[in-house]
């Protein structure tokens, strides 16, 4: 049972699998919760009563979110992988965009803190990783260089990567970052490097990250 504040959680939306509507999803410490009921700020006791009924009497895993204008009760759900190709492509596009923003942010840090020579070496090292891994549309030095300069949030026709590409890319990016900076401090907190992303996409990426093999690297 949890009573949470807005700053404690991330809230995003997902497409309802059968209806033409977006469903709000609350993310907290790698867990996902779906909205059950909303109460006005003057209905605190009603909100707590429902929350206790669900948690104490029915054994449900729920959280109570306290905000300035309202209270809301959320029940734990498992956000299933999206089955259709269009939705799945949209999902991997979000992961790709976030990964590029992390790459660009890290590259800028290397250049500003370690100098242009180290930045050039970092670019060559990461380009070599992409060549070896044969990432779609990014396996040549020229294509990789484009990753460092374009805006993934506004671009169309993004490379069609799979989740395994994203995972290995971020593993290698973390490895190189650790080599260049001598520690893993550069990786925390990830959310600060993704401020330009829409909140829903950023929340989705962070939730995915926490549930992936990368959770111990990028936190």
Name a few traits of the molecule.
219 residues, alpha+beta, Phosphorylase Kinase, domain 1, 2 domains, 6-stranded mixed sheet, 6 strands, 18% strand
Write the layout of secondary structure elements.
Layout (H helix, E strand, L loop, with lengths): L1 E4 L4 E6 L6 E7 L2 E10 L3 H14 L4 E5 L3 E8 L7 H30 L1 H18 L7 H7 L15 H19 L17 H12 L9
Parallel strand pairs: 1-5
Antiparallel strand pairs: 2-3, 3-4, 4-6, 5-6
| Cα-to-Cα separation, first versus last residue | 24 Å
Whole-angstrom Rg:
20 Å
The helix content is: 40-55%
Helix tally? Answer: 6
User: What is the mean pLDDT?
Assistant: 84
Order of helices and strands: EEEEHEEHHHHH
**Structural class of the helix and strand makeup?**
alpha+beta
Largest sheet: 6 strands, mixed
Oligomer: single chain
Question: Beta-strand level of the residues, as a percent range?
Answer: 15-25%
Any idea how many domains? Answer: 2
Strands, total number: 6
Flag low-confidence runs: 80-89
**Can you list the strand order of the major beta sheet?**
1-5-6-4-3-2
| Cα shape | elongated
